[in-house]
Structures are given as C-alpha cells and as structure tokens.
Design brief:
- This protein is mostly beta strands and about 110 residues long.
- It has a single domain, classed as Jelly Rolls.
- It has strands at about 10-15, 15-25, 30-35, 40-45, 50-65, 65-70, 75-80, 85-100.
- Strand 2 (about 15-25) and strand 3 form a beta hairpin.
- It is globular, with a radius of gyration of 13 Å.
- The chain starts with 9 loop residues before the first strand and ends in a 13-residue tail after the last strand.
Length: about 110
C-alpha cells in the first residue's frame, strides 16, 4: 500500500504541535510530528511499543522518570506501558513508530 503525503491530513494537536499519520496497518504505524519550541507531549502511557526518531531539533524525553536530551539522528525506544513524555527544546520534527497500530489515533477504540 502507498500513502501519498498530499492525501494525508495534518492534525493540529495544540498550538505547538501537529501530527500526520503516515503508513499503517494493524501491526505497525508511523507518524510524523512537528513541535514548536516549548511544545509538550504530556506524560502518558499506552500498551504500544514505540520508537521515536528525531528528524531535526532538540527534545528532552522523560521515560519512566529518566530524562534524556536527543537531537537529529538520535532515536529512543519506549516499551509498552512505560510512562513517557517530552518537551521540545528547539523547534523540531520526529517520527513516531508504533506496534501495534494506534487505533485511538484513527478514532477507533483500541482493542489491546
């Protein structure tokens, strides 16, 4: 399957962040996120395994209370059910990869 960027809606999450849901199926999902400086991904948890790949900018991730600053080219692994969040220190972009798919992002109740 091909997901053409021109056909994908950008979802504004708040005044400092937005997300596009890229290629996905039941087992895997990729999302492209943009953050302005001081944008926040509040602490939360979900059963999905997640990897964040930093495309540009600088972010402070908090995973289970451990804070780490990451920049372009870095990636971070977040196990399922781990409490995590981030603060954008310098305007940036990242890819979030989830397994399985985040059905809640699609407006469907998650069945996990």
């Amino acid at each position: 399957m091909v997901f053409f960027d021109k056909d994908i809606k950008t979802n504004v999450l708040d005044e400092k962040s937005s997300r596009k849901i890229l290629a996905h199926d039941d087992d895997l999902m990729v999302c492209h996120l943009w953050f302005k400086k001081d944008g926040v991904g509040s602490l939360h948890q979900h059963p999905h395994t997640q990897i964040a790949y930093i495309l540009k900018g600088r972010f402070e991730f908090n995973v289970e209370g451990e804070k780490t600053v990451v920049t372009a080219g870095d990636s971070i692994y977040i196990p399922g059910n781990a409490e995590h969040g981030l603060v954008c220190l310098e305007e940036g972009e990242l890819l979030d990869i989830f397994t399985p798919e985040r059905k809640d992002f699609l407006g469907v109740d998650d069945v996990i």
